[in-house]
Amino acid sequence: MKLDGPCADAAHDQLVADVFARACASRGVLEHVTGRWGTLALAALAEGPFRFNALRRKVDGVSEKMLAQTLQALERDGFVHREAEPTIPPRVEYSLTPLGAEVAARLRDLIEFVEGRLPDVVAARHAYDEAKAPR
Question: Which stretches make up the HTH hxlR-type domain (predicted)?
Answer without folding.
Answer: 24-122
